[in-house]
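Can't paste images in this forum, so I'm doing it all in text. The chain is below; anyone willing to post the predicted structure tokens underneath?
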Amino acid sequence: MLWVMGFGIIFLLLAVMYAIWGVAEAVLLRRARSAPVQAEGKVCGLVQHRPLMQYEKQGRVPQLAFQYWGRTTGNGAHGVLSIPQAFSRWNSYPCVEFAAGGDTVAWLSKQGGKKGMWSIGQSVQLRYHPDSPEEYFLTDDRAARHAIRMDFVWALVFALVSAALFAVYLF
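Text version of the structure:
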């Protein structure tokens, strides 16, 4: 029966981890919303994350933007961490082209969305910090809010499983 308590502890730790991650994402969302520069951009490409570390590119997605996105989001570069994300319906990422500091830049968004949420040529509003335009934030933050909600849903699920396992162990 000791294994039941062990699993209870593991699920409790997962619940705490997801709750902490949800709070961290909420703080990052708040920080992104306060970025000083607002701009309009156009979706120049899309990346669809597929299972088994496959990526389907459509339109124009600069290689530098793709590599930066892979390193900073856990897609591709961190392998195992991005596997659950590949099976989600929220795994389509727009590459947005916009003017920043007199140059035209194109970067992949860290905000995943449902397939069909964006289309090539679509105008989008974004905010960014002048010293790091690659860290832009789309002002339509449905995907970011969805991610935060799901963190707390998973925290609740793991907490309930943990409570059930502790109840089995104690009674």
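The mean pLDDT is 86. Helices lie at 2-33, 63-73, 83-86, 142-170.
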